[in-house]
Amino acid sequence: MEEFQGTLVSDFWGAYNTVVCAARQGCLVHLLRDLHTVDHDQKAGEHWPEFAKKLRRLVGDAIRLWRATELSSASRQSRRQRLDERLHELIATAWEDSQAKRLVKRLRRHRHDLFTFLDQPGVPFDNNLAERAVRPAVIIRKNSYANRSQQGAEVQGVLMSIYRTLKQRGHNPLHTITKALADDVTTGTLPPLPAKSTSAQ
Fold this sequence. Notes:
Layout: E1 4-10, E2 21-26, H1 28-39, H2 48-67, H3 73-92, H4 98-109, H5 116-119, H6 128-143, H7 150-168, H8 173-187
Parallel strand pairs: 1-2
């Protein structure tokens, strides 16, 4: 299986676990949102507030460290290491609350994917960019009253993926697709997707 050489930034949906990639970053905003949801859930147990407080502080401190550009290298490294230690302590604690146990299971599975943004420049701590990227496809699906068929969904997925890839690589999607179809008619072979435009680099 071909490996994605970059860092996959995603929420914690299980399907992403099958993606082979160089590194991962779990969306911390989704994690905080989950805490907020349980905070307002009547089923939250008496031990939930303690767990939620520790996890919320851990995430908040990680984001603050990311924003603290004035720290020395030694200070940053010390705080970064302490974040890993606190995460380990949080996971190792025998929490009695069922919601805490559920999230600890997630933290244990993604323990190496939570602070990647602190170690790799340019990696965000949320997947907002990805969600904004898929929003046009969701709007199209909503306005057209869904895809009507499995084949329609697959075709839309392929077309939107090609369109978005071309746009991100600095090409005019409509012009590039039109030219590719013309080449296919002439040669009988579709050309590969063009590489990133030098003007977009």
